[in-house]
Each structure stands twice: as structure tokens, then as C-alpha cells.
Queue: 4 jobs
Job 1
Amino acid sequence: MTLTLRPGGATLADLETIWRGQGPVRLDPTARGAVEASARTVALAASGDTPVYGINTGFGKLASVRIAPEDTETLQRNLILSHCCGVGDALEPETTRLMMALKLLSLGRGASGVRWDICALIEAMLARNVMPVIPVQGSVGASGDLAPLAHMAAVMIGMGEATYEGQTMDGGAALTKAGLAPVVLGPKEGLALINGTQFSTALALAGLFEGWRAARAAVVTSALSTDAIMGSTAPLNPAIHSLRGHQGQIDVAAAMTRLLDGSVIRESHRDGDTRVQDPYCIRCQPQVTGAAIDLLRFAGRTLEIEANAVTDNPLVIAETGEILSGGNFHAEPVAFAADQIALALAEIGAIAQRRVALMVDPTLSFDLPPFLAPEPGLNSGLMIAEVTTAALMSENKHLANPCSTDSTPTSANQEDHVSMAAHGARRLRRMTANLNGILGIEAICAAQGIEQRAPLVTSRPLQAAMAHLRTVVPTLQKDRYLAPDLRAAADCISNDSLAAASGLEMSL
């Protein structure tokens, strides 16, 4: 089914559908009028004598160099080829697809001065799955994501590299095989394609979408861990959380209450438990995971705004005939959002790791066997799985260091403050993979601990989550080769199946 995007009105749900899907994407046809009006404004400026940046001048530090009307096509072609300086691994296809859709949204606002033909080619490439090969390194997140977007634009002019039907080939060949023709760029069109934040924004959105699934799973695994160590649900009382007022905290406490409702394990120790308070990793789960959820939601709103924004330069105001130089290409909002997501991911993993450590420690787990092992000593159980969570947690802590504060001048000091949004966003999928690993191991440990409480049983929602986990990770009866189990459990986090099995309702 074709997804129609209304410029300025795309939602996070729309963007996630694009990222996870394969179908065609197109602009709402009503956008065409504004796009063509801005193109006419640019054409008029290109034919005049007044210097207008990016239309009849050079770029960046070379903005004072006038370009003759007959050289504007060459100017745009040279711009694209000279900016194809990306290095490193290729961007994954799903994020490339989202990046292209974001560029389509931006151009569709009618402030970039491109012809409708440019939008139509991006639509056709998305529909026929012609994916430019985009090296992931080379952007500093100001003046736009110049190098990555240049690699996209290169395919549009029949150059560069692209994948089509599972093969990597010359960009022109990919277009031909897909029944498409390259475009010849007119005034400003090359600049409009590469000047923007769509690469950084697509990466940040990918991190957000995967991070949200991890946050959902963390609510479920934390509830499982609470029952595994026979923790108290008293700290989930809504009065506690309403007195503080943070929505994420309120939501997590309510969700955990629903997940644990009806647990026989909980009822078995409600009275007569000599423990007055649980450790923070149990007692403060709503406060920590809830705060992370608030951050993710805030970052999501920032990225939703950015996804609908016009972020190239100059901007064309067709109604007045003005062409305005500005700085919307500076990706500071994206850099901040990426840093916020990174902090949230690191903290969700940090408290989850402490829950794992709690469960494997017989002095703290309320009589669970050491390392949750059957016949401890003969078996090591989940001893080293816990060590793995510590390694993943530590790595995420390092990766969570802010990137937005690390500016460096570029382009002969014309671009003297940059956002570093691109690599700030690029690290997020590595972090989510680490977090999925931590939460998957927590799920394994918690399920093992709950089973060791038999004949006592947990609640129906958590039983359902455990049953799903047991379809891919059997109960640990004796030591075995665990690496495949850890991967399978991490997959239950990344594909949202563990949270879905529990019936958890919590939306971004």
C-alpha cells in the first residue's frame, strides 16, 4: 500500500511505518503547486543579474564567485560529485529509505526551489527500491549532511552507487534496470538535495524507534525481576507517583502494577516479610525508566518537528519572491535529541544490569540459588551472562557521552560551529543492540528465578511473557552453550514480541 505524506504533517507513526516497511511513498499531490511555484522563483533569479547564493554563485567560502547562467547545470553537477566524500560502511537500507522520504517531505514544503521532477524521481526510487549506497561517515551535522546526501543525489544524476534487486551497481545502471531515467539538475537543485538534516534525522529516528521498543521491554523485564526476587509492589502505589507528577514515572508504575496484578508470588510474601525496603534497582524502577521514557518522548517530538522541516539553504518564499539565506541546515536540535536518546538508553540498561546482578547474587536474591544455577558448583548457571550485561552496560555508558558539545570549525572557518548530529545519531543503533542484549539476559534470569519459585506462580501477563520467551530459550536445566539463547532473547526485545506477549500498552 502506498503511504501518502502531507508535507508538514507527517507523524512519528508514519515515519516508523516507512522505516520498517517496503511499500511506495509519495507526496500528497496537493504539494505540487507550492513546489512548482518555488521552482519558478528560482528560475527567475537564475536568469537575473543579482547574485543569489547557491543559484548563481559558488558555495560556502566560494559564495563570492559569480556563476554565468550557462554554467548553472555544471555548477550543480560539480557540487554533487565534489561532495561525495563519505567513508565507512554503507547505511542500512531501511534508514536510507527513511532518509529519502524525509528529503521528499522537506522538498514538498515548497521552499527549496526544485522542480516537481526531482520529487517524482525520489518517489519512483522508493517505489522501485533503488537504494543509494550512503557511506555513514563524513557529516558534521551543519551545512546539512552534505556528504551522505550527495551520495543520494549522485544516483539521481546517474552516478554514484546504488543497490537494486539485491545487487550493488553503478547508480545509472540501477536507474536503468528499474526503468527510470536520471535527472539533469537545474539551478539550486543540487544544493537543495544535499543541504539538509535528513541523514542525521533518519539515524536519530531509527535509534528512537528501536529505543522505544527496548523501553517497553524494560517495563516487562523489570516486573519479571520484581517477582523473581520476591520484591515488593508497594513502591508502585499511584499516590507516590502522582505526588511527583512526572508522566513517564506515572505510566511505568501503572504498567508494572497491571503486569504484576494477580501474582501468587507477590501475595505469598505480602505479610511477614522481614525486608523493609528493596534495593533501588527494584524500588526505583518507575523513577528511572519513567524518566528515560520522558526523555524518549521529548526527543521524539523534536525529531517529528525536524522531519517535517525545511532545512536547506537558501529558502524560497514564493509568495513574496524572496530567496533568504539562513541556517536551518544546522542540526543542533537533532544532536540534542540524539544525546537525550543515548542518555535514556544508557540509564535503562544501567538499572536493568543491577537487577540482573541482584538476581544472581544469593545474598540479595531472597534465597534463589547462586547464579540461578541448577546444582550450583557443578553448574555455573548464568554467572557469565551477568558479566556480559556488565560489559554491555559499560560500553553504553561510554557511548552516551554527549556529541553535541564537540564542535569543530570546517570549510575554511566559514562553517565555524557544527552540531556533530550525524555521529551522535549513528551510535544509537549500536547502543540499542547493547541494551537489547542486557534486557534479553534480564528476561532469561527473571524467568529462571520465577520458575525456581514453583509451585508459586507469577501473574497471567508475566506468565504469557515467559511462555513466549520459552519458545526460543528453554529453561536452564544444566550448563549449556548459551550464546544462541542470548541472541534469541535479545531478538524478543528488538522485535517487541516479549512486550506484546505481556499485553503491555504504552505508546510513544
Note: Strands lie at 3-5, 25-27, 87-90, 131-132, 135-137, 161-164, 167-170, 315-317, 322-324.
Job 2
Amino acid sequence: MRIAIIGGGISGIAAAQSLRKTGHDVQIYEKSDRIGGVWAMGYPGVRLQNTRDQYRLMDVPWSTKPDLHPTSAQVQQHLNDAIDKLDLPVKLGHEVTKLEEAEGGWRLHYHNDGDAGQQDFDFIVLSIGQYSSGKRRPEFPGQDKFQGEIVTEREITDLSVFAGKKVLVAGFGKSALDMATFAVEQASEVHHLFRTPRWMIPFRILGVHYSRLLFCRMGTFLMPSWVQPNATEAFIHRKLGFLVRANWHLVQSIVRLQKYLMGFGKSAVVKARLASLTPKHDIISDFRSASAMQPQMYLEHVAGERLLPHQGELRAFTERGVVLEDGQTIDCDVVVLSLGSGSPTFPFLPDKYRALLESESDGVQLYRHLLHPEVPRIAFAGFNHGFMHVPAVEIGMLWLSALLTGDLTLPSAEEMQQSMEKIQQWKRDHVNFEPSRSCAVNTRFQQYLDVLLKDLGLNPYRKTPNILAELFSQYGPDDYVGIYEEYQAGRAQGAQPLRALAVDT
């Protein structure tokens, strides 16, 4: 089958290699002049929140050992290595302008350096990413009078822009925390403004790297989720919920204590600033959302009074700075709006399909984070954002390939819609960070991978029969190497037809 993949970031590359491995003819279209997606556009100093062991293509080891938390340049090199090793076909500088339905497939229209062209495909995989619509940049009263500079973090290409300046960073996601931390080394004064603090997850909890706690199956057993695909998990959450709550209360207490100790021996003002960074909601609420890791030195800079946090909301600009909702004014020369990205848009799709995908207030909702039951011959890759993002894309495309070859059958459109609505309602009830109510898997990645593998008739428990390793060892791409061959061997032995579950329970 001829498949076009729109988007040349890590999801598009992972999708291409997975689909081609299962026998499909693929072509990647990337509108920029280089691959990498968000990694090609990353701000200086940006690093992965998860580790090198969890973030790579299954069949492409790191060519040189990167940092534990790789830089954007190191990720970019990994993707270039993948293109070369796998010989993946990529059309750079090709912006897809329109998809129109054709007999048995799609006609793809594109622009390339002023020239237009078209090509027919049997199937389309959209891998434009959840951040493709760009950074949110709301308008504020008085900003036209501001004599300084207003930017988003994506517009910053050199941290020297902060040199000797008074800087204010607005937001509380990963990018905002990074920008505030990085600015300290260059700026004369740094302010961090946020409306609602969230739990920053330390890279180490009592000296143990967070990945050892979250990337093992026992960690996922204790992670509240819309799906508990095994009887043990279901029992723990339905009958032993008090133990689950106790576990996360303990983690929260440890994180709170580590933050408290940063203020030991400091003034009352510093202690109050550190306290303002502690949310009123429970830590598990943010674990359900897009958890932000605590940058190295962020709390140290607050404790050292080199970084000044402010809880409040930006109301307006003056010539010299900003005014907060409580009337406080902050003088600044550079304002970094790090307020997240808008929901993705699909301007190249026919209006009827675009409306289905863009009208949802909680973002794009998909069955298995891969398909929309009312959008034919189109799948999505990378709309399952989580800590084990890359294996999720690769296994998701194996799932898609099983569907395209007829090995896997789907429930009815109505049943798929019911599944999507059930998950969406769970998120509305439990996820307090709205941008994460789309197709984010985040810390619930293990359950998601388990469901896909069970759909495919494969064993999700990759470390058995070693029970201790299964429960307490970290999971990563290495555990899924050979999954394609395993699947093909099972089908060759005349396994029973596969059917995806209708509703995740």
C-alpha cells in the first residue's frame, strides 16, 4: 500500500520505518528544509525530560552515547542517523496544501519552493504533531506601547538576548521553567510569572532518578488511568485504592520536603517564594496531566534570590513593563510568553473532516489514539504524547498495518465513538490541565502499549518469566525490539483473526 506521511519529526520518521518494515511503500512530506519537527525548532538549551534509554527508534541505537537527558542537537543527530541507516524517503521543503478524496485513497497536493505538484496515495498518516499550530500569543492591553521585546520561547535562537536585561517569563510548563532558569545566567534580573503553580517533578527523588520509579511496571500499576488492562491493576485500583493514594501522598510529601529544605536557613521572603511554588492540588493531578520536570538549578536560583517567582496574571503592558491583576507592576525589558501551544489544525483536509477534528474543546480525540471513526483512510502518529512516545508510535503503526492487511478488525464506528467518549469523560473528571485532555498518554504509557499489544495478540509482558524484572526494572525501546518479527511469526502460524476491543475497561 502507498502511504504518505505528513510531517518529518520523530513521529513521522518512526511511523515511516515501522510501516515500511511491514511492507508498505511510504513517502514522508516535511514542509521545512530539515527533519526533526519540534527538535529542529527547539530553543537553546532544551533537553529531553525523559532519558536516552526511553527515547529512540527501536532499530536505531544512539550512534554516540548522548547525555542522560539528550540535547536537541543530539536528538537531531539520532534522527539524521535513522534517515541514513533506514534509507527513508523524505521530501524536504514540501508543504502539503490540500488532500482531496480520490477513488480508493487520497490525492495529495503540495508546494515546493514555489512549484506545485500532486500525487496519489492509498492511505495518509498525519504526523504534524500536537504543537504544530504554533505557540499561543494572546494580545494584551498596552503592549503596543511597551518599549521592550515580547517573544515566545520558540523565537529565541540565542540566550544572549537576555544579556544585561530585566526578563519576565510567563507560564508554568516545561518551556517556561527552562526559560526562567536559562535567563538567570545572562540577565540582570529575572521574574517568573504564573497563574497556577503545578507540581514540578524532580529528576531525582531521594537520590533515585524518577525514571526508575515511573518506567517500571509497578510504577504504572499505581498510576491512575482510564484503562486497567490487567486483572491485577484493576484489583489494586478498585479494591486497594487507599494504598494507591498513600503511595502518591508519600511521593508528594518527599517532593515537598525537598523543596522545603531548599529554604533552610533562608529569609522569610525566600521561604514564602518557595512556598508559592507548591500547588494546592495533589501531585497525582499533575501526573495525570503533562507533568513538567523541575529544571536543574531552578529552585537553587529561587533560594539564591536570582529568580523571583510571582503568582498572578498578566493584565496589561506599560512602556516599561507589565501590570498584574492585583495592580503590581514589574519593570522588564524582555517578556517571554511561554503559554503553551494551540490545538492542532488541519487546513489541508476537506472541511467536513477538519470540523470533526478541530471542533472538540478538549483537542483531537481518537480511537486508540490512532484513528477517527468518521475520517476514512487517515491515521495519526504522535498524537499519543507520553514518556515512551517513540515505541508508542512504532507499535501503533504495527497496529495500523495489521488493520490495513486485514489481520485486525475494528469495532463498529458507534462502539469506537463510545470508547473515545469514555476516555474523554475520564480526562474531564481527572485531568486539571486542559491541554492534556487531547490524546496525551503521558505517564500512562505502559497501559497504552499493553492495550495495543493485546489487540495484536502479543504478550505485553516483555520481561517475563523474571517476575522481579517485570515489576521493578525500567521499560524502554529495547524491550520491544523484534516485535515485528514476533507478530509476523504469530500470523504465519495461523493465529486466530484479531479484533480490537471496543471499550477500554
Note: The longest helix spans residues 241-262.
Job 3
Amino acid sequence: MKNSVRTYSIVSLLAILLINTVFTSTVKAQNDNRQEEARSTWAEKLGFPAGKKVIILHADDAGMSEGANIATAHYLENKYIQSAAIMAPCPAADEFIQWAIEHPDADVGMHLTHTSEWKHYRWGPVSDPAEVPGLIDPDGMLWPEVFNVVMSATADEVEKEIRAQIDKAIAMGYMPNHIDTHMGTLYGHPDYTERFLKVAEEYGIPANAIDLSDPQVVDKFKKQGYPINDKAIALMENYSLPKLDNFTSAPNAKSYEEKIENFKNLIRSLPAGLTEIIFHPSVDSEELRGITNSWQQRVWEAKMFSDPDLIKFFEEEEIVFTNWIEIMERFSGWTSLFNGENLEGWTVRGKANWEVKDGVLTGQSEDGTGHIYTGPELSDLEVKGMFRLSDQGGGGNSGLYFRANPPADNPDGYPLGYEAQICHNQEAHTGWLWKPGTPTGKASKLLTSDDEWFSMRVRARGSLIQIWVNEQLVMTYEDEEYKRGYFAIQCHNPGMTIEAKELYYRKL
């Protein structure tokens, strides 16, 4: 009897263990499935259709040489590719920065360069070499390999060169649309990655940061040699700008036909989500052949994306293309207030005359004050635009209103709400915060002049109100009188003209 009981107990225990194991495995599988379902791609987060392959065709190495510039400019001008980046230390960089200035609709960033890999075609840093000694090889140039940089350069030196390259473009009058890293150097050590992402957030310029929340993505890049550890994963998790789901490069081949086919296979293998694909186009030249043994791949890459066969393939695969400009527009949540064509969505009040001229919203007054309103009605908000005020001897005065409503007893009267002042000829000048008839929050400086375009941005969250002019914070004030309302632009005095364009808002 005892043996029977013992046998029964053992069988019962084994059954319980089996049930628990099955239950645990089932729960784990269910949790894994839920996690997978909950993990939406960055393409989906940015509002692209679910399940689609969203791709950035990105030309690296603009500015490296004249041939690279010619090929990259041709691709961008003809919309065959979506994005490119400039190697600031290279001989032809200034030329392409100027091209980017002249083509503001093109997505051009900085290909942050901390290495100089070619044997007979070298470059040094943009920074003073004395300030970044760890980046300099015995020949006085940047190190040829990422390994050399990691072994020699501090994170401070790497960051200094990052800033110098971005600031070079800004000083020439160009604000890069994104930043990435030549030869993956800034992912060669987590400390470098930390500085890379920090600068991106500080400047508000997105980096080619890769979402590492999926262990399979982590494994993929570890196998490629990237030193991904817990710190790197945490850095990406806390990074506040948009990320890529995937990152890869155009494969090499032994013939042009094989290269096209290899690229098609790459596209077929990609998962759904946001992927940046890099390549290095250049026109053929003796200079190019003298620089690199990979010249043939670069020449093919300057041809393949305009190839009708590949274009047709993209259409058949229903590929969605994007660039960093669109990504940031989607990410930031800005919505246009003005369509650039007519006054649809706007309501005119008062005596000023409003019209659209050459894509610009224009207000003029002959008889007196007027305002033009638009929605939506908001409480917490951010609004921005470009403005130009012409005095014409009439004492030009305007303003950007927010949380504003027409007076119920006199809809043509001054709006009841807040006004970010636009005026160059009085103490309470552009950037001051006004309430009806009353200068309220003082602007720290006057940054605007008659007949010159300037940017203005206003943020109102709860009682805190801030105003930026030309991206400089000039006014901060706490006030709770006006809780909710519309946007409006003022034309205050006879003989003046106010112009506005690139008007956007977002709800906070």
C-alpha cells in the first residue's frame, strides 16, 4: 500500500510539474506574442502605413570629391534618392554645403568624419589639431581606421570634432537636416555614441540612431562587430529624437547587373519598418580611380537608382520612400496653418486687407486696424512662422496672437488674448508679450528690423509663456488670464504691410 501511495505521489508530482511547465511555456509564449504585437515600428510611430517597408536611399560621402558631388546633386535634384550627407573635412565639402543652401528642399546632413581611410587621399580634422591630438595620426591626418580612433581619442575630442563639423555648415549659412557617422566611428565606443546623441538632441538635428529595443536587432549589429552593451542600449532607449528600425548598405557585386539583382534581394529581405540604406555614388574620373579601389562600385551606384528597371521594381514592391525632413515633420507633430495658396481657413476682421501673394500671407491697411483669425481653438500650444514687417512711414505694428478670441460685443475689435508683439520702432518691441493694450512680458533684446524676414516661435503651456525670435529665447512670463482661443495676425496701422509664411502649430 505504501508503495502504491508513493508511486501515485510521484506520478501526481510529475503531472503537476508537467502542467506547470506547459502553463509557464504557454504564458511566456503569450507574453512574447503580446510584446511583439506591442512593439510597433518607428515607421508606424511616425504615421506610415503598418507593414510597409519605408526606406531612405542615402548618399554618403558628398564633399569627398568633385565626382561625388556631381553624382549626389544629380540624384537629389531628380528625386531618385531622398537624402545625402557631407564630409566636412574633405576638399569638396564647401562646394556641396553651398549647393545645399541653394536647394533648401533637399535633405542634406553632415556625414560626421573622424577617419581618413584612403592611402593617397587624406584629410585632417575641422577642429584645431592641437585641440584634438587623439584624432591625429603620425602623418597629421585623421586616423585611417575606427580601431585607431577608439585606441587613441577621448570622448571629449570626438565631441569637439562633431561640433566643429556641424558648426562649419552653420557658419556658412546651412543648418543640416540630420547627422550620421563615417565608417560607423561614433558607434565604435559607447562613450562616443553618448556624445553623438547628446549633440543631436542639443542641436535638434536627428542622428541615424537605431532602435535597439528588439533583441534580434541587437544580435544583428553585434555580429557586425558593433560594441553594443547595456550602456549603448540604454542610450538609445533614452534618446528623444526619432530612430531607425534598420540600417544597411548597398551590397557590392562583380557586375552592374549583379549589383542591381543584389540590391533587389536586399530590399526583398528587409522587414517592415524604417530603414536607411547607404551607398557612395560618384562619377567616373581619374581622381576617383586614384582614391579608391572601390571606384567601380561607386560608379555603378551613381547609375543604378535612376535605372528604369530598379525604379519599376520599387513600384512593384510598393516601397514607401521618405527622408529626414519628412521624418522630423511627422515626429514633431507640426501642422500647417496656411496653405500658401489662398485664405481658406482664415476669417478676416476689421479694416485691413488680406491676400496671398507668391505664397505669402499679406496684410495691408489703409484705413485702420484689422486682424485675421484661424483655428484650431487651443489651450496648450506651440506656434511658429516667418514674418516681415514693412513700415512705409506709417509706424508699422503687428503681432502674432494665440489663445485669442474676437470680442463678443465687437468682433472687429482687438482680440481678447495674448499677443507676441511684432514691432521695430518702440520700446515694447518684437518679442514682447502683450495683453489687450498692455505690454506685459518684456523681451530681452530686439533682433528684428524693417523689411527683413525673421522667425518667431511661441510656446504656451499652462501659465508659462515663452517667445523665441530667430530661435533665441527673448521672453518668459507666467500668466493665467487667457486659457483658450484661436490664432490671429494683426495689421495695426495705416501704411504698413505685414507678411507671414511657413506658419505651423502643434498641440502640447
Note: The two ends are 75 Å apart (CA to CA).
Job 4
Amino acid sequence: MLKAGSEFKNSQRNIVILLAILVAICIATRLLFMGRHLEGWDCIDFALGLHDYDIAHYQPHFPGYPVYMSFCWLVHLFTDSDVLTLTIPGAVLGSITLVPLFYLARRMFTEKVAWLAVFLFIVNPFCWLQSEKALSDAVGLFFIVVSAQLLFYASTSRVNALRYLISGSVMLGICMGVRLSYFPFVVLWLYTLYVLSRYDKGKKMIGYGVSAFILGTCVWLVPLTCYTGLKPLLVNGFNFTFGHFSDWGGSVATSQNVLSRFSEFVWCLFCNGLGFWCYDTSVIRILPSIIMGTGIIIYLKYSGFDCKTKFITFYMLPYFLWVLFGQNLEKPRHVLPLIPVIIICISAGLARLRYFLLNYSKLNIFSHKTYSIYNLFIGILIVSMSIISIKIVYTHKNEPVAQIQLLDYVEHNYDGQSTRVYCWETKRLFEYYAPLLDARRARDVDDMQYDVNSSLDAPEVILSTSKVSGINSITNNAKVVVEFKNNRYVNNPYHKLTLYDLSY
């Protein structure tokens, strides 16, 4: 007994040491390939919020991301770089995510499945890229995976269920202060409460769970309300939510072709998120796509409707529906929370394949060859995904995105006193990097024309980007100046921008 206990402790210690080493490697690689610029509207919102926190002026946008910003303010004490300040929290917590991922996968399946899931997570191009961007997504992912791990522990444990429930509920409540758009995971929490309601003292456990979730939410909501005031917070929240669903948010309300949205979702999840092959990617993706696809198929075929499957369903389905109908699918980062659990499912499917091959090898003379083929495929999967990821993050580090290219071109080739630029989200980048340039936001050609006609002083040079809707319809009055491109797997939808001159 003593020997067995000692071996168990040594095993757990070795697991902790190895996970710590992998986390350190993860953080180092994320920081090594981090971008050099703030790449989009949200990034600029966060950067402005570092220096002057004001939700009413979208510094940052609603709900103010107070938990993420708190991490950033802490980092900002040690560096003056806005890019570094906004990136480090995601690089660190995005890397630490592999720890709860390991324990969740091990609890659901086996330790072998857990280790495979960890390595697939480390080399996943999408998770790697998002952990080195100046955004809150990777931080939010950490809190989601931690809460999912704790809630699954709660739903499958009799002895410590209450402790896991309270911890998971608090973490989920805090997560809402990182990314409020992750609210569909509340359904997973409600499912856990339902499972626990059938336990002894179930009503008491539900009360503790609800209280813990409220506590986690109050950690960020109370200070935020005290800072902004209740009425301004509610007004700003209503206006932002209304605009998201009716105007600029990219939800089904503004893009109603459901078939097209589903196609875009598939691309976001599989091609961008998991690294599957697509027509515009390298052939190196084909074999890992087949291997991962095989893992998914085997998992779906042999998974019964047990507690694991129910938990995964309540994790995946609500958020899938939210992204499909309520989010802007032009921005693939919205599918990020789905990736870790899919990686676990792939790992479980491949482990099942290993089991089949092991049993098959016992029945034939090629036993060692059969099992070696499996190891070879896993090795190919890890190595090829590493190559794919390194290529993407190297591009992210060394090649400015199209918006930055456009901004630099205008700044170096046009006189700021006599030039006006009409654009969409790029306006925020002009405000941050080139505040002396006259950049104005215009949704379409009509907005642009109205602004030009209502201006007291007409500029000598009028420029427009291709993101101004309808600009292609007036090509007779517009001269194409230059086109800027970058890898759309690095920055979508602004991977291609055309600059037009309307002044001649």
C-alpha cells in the first residue's frame, strides 16, 4: 500500500513538472512570435483604455472587459509598450490553458488521451496565434476551460462535488468580465446544476452554485458599476447590444443567408481553427487533416450518450448556435472556445484507433508494424501541425497586416493637411497611429458622398478603402492606387484592402 501510494505521488509530481515545462515553452514561443502592431479596432480600444478607461468612448467597448484590462494594467506597470502590455496576458494564460485541458481530458478519458490533447493544443495554429495577439480571447479561453474542467469534476464526483461546483461557478462568473460574449457557457453551468440537483442535498448545492456564480460576476461588475455609474453602464450596454444585432455586429440580422453563414462557420472552425486543408493552403495540411478527421469520425461513431457526451454537447451546442447566428463570422476568433474540446474529441478518437490497431496486431504476424504505423501517424500529425503553426506565426510577426500596410502607405505618400481618407474599421488605427491624418468612417458610398458635400472645406485629395460598401460601383470616378494583402489565416477579414483615389 505504501509503495503504491509513493508511486502515485511520484507520478503526479512528474505530471506537474512536465506540464510546467510545457507551459514555459508555450509562453516563450508565444512571446517570440508576437505581433509588432495593434491590428484592429478592438486592439485599439484596449490600448486607449490603458491610458483613459472610458466605456462611453469605446475605450474599450462595452462591457469594458474589466478582468482582462486588470491583467493589462498590471503588466503595464513594467512596460510602456501597448502591444506587449495587451499581449502578455493572453500569451501567459493562453499557455496555462493546457493545464486544465489536461485534467479535463484525463477525467473524461485517459491519461494518454490527455497528453495527446495537450500536444495538439500546443501546436494548434489557431490557439497559438490567438495567444500572441493583443486581444482578450486567449484570456477568456483560459477561464472557460478551467470552469469546464471544474464543472465536469463537479458533475462526476460525489465526494468533492460542492467544492468543484463553487470553484467552477466563480471562474465562470469572472470569465464574463473577460469576454461577455462567452455567456452561452452559462447553459453548461445550468446543466451541471441540473445534474447535481439529483444528488443528496441537491437544492442546497444549487444555492451554493448560484451564489458562487453571482460572487464571480460581482468581482468585476461591482467595481465597474462604481466607476462608470449604473445608468451610463446600462445605457451604453443597451446601445452597444442594439448596434451589434441591428447594424454592425455581423449577426444573422445583418447577414441573413444562413447557408452562407454555415459555410463560413465551417471554414472558421475546421480550416482556420483546427488547421484543416483548404484550397488556399499548403498541401502539407492534407495528411494531418485526414488524421484529425479520422479521429473525429471514430469518436462520433463510438461515443455513447454517457455523461461525457452530454457534457460535451452542452459545452458545444449553445456556443455553436450563438456564433452561427449572433456573431461576426468574418472574424474566426469567435470559434476559439470550441477548439480545445474538439481537440480532446480528436485525441479520444485517435486513442480508440490505437486500441483497434493494438487488438489487430495481436492477431497477425505484423504486430510491431501495425502499431508502429499508428505512432508514425501521430508523429506526422504533431510535426506537420508544428510546421503549419510556425509558418503562420512567423508571418504574423514579420509581415504587417493589410490595414497597417495601408496606413503606412498613406502616411508616407500623402500630405496630411490636404488628404482625407474614408474607411471603416481602419479609422481606429488612423486615430491611434496617425492622428494628424483626416480619416473618417463611412459605411458606404452614400455616407461618404454626404460627408464630402457637407464639409466646409473640401480636401484636395480624397481616398477611400475597399471596405466602404459600393466603392466598386463608382470605378469610373475612382482610380485604384494600390492593393494591400496579407495571409487571411493571420488576419481575416482585413487580409485584402484596395486604396482608391477619388480626387481626379
Note: The longest helix spans residues 367-398.
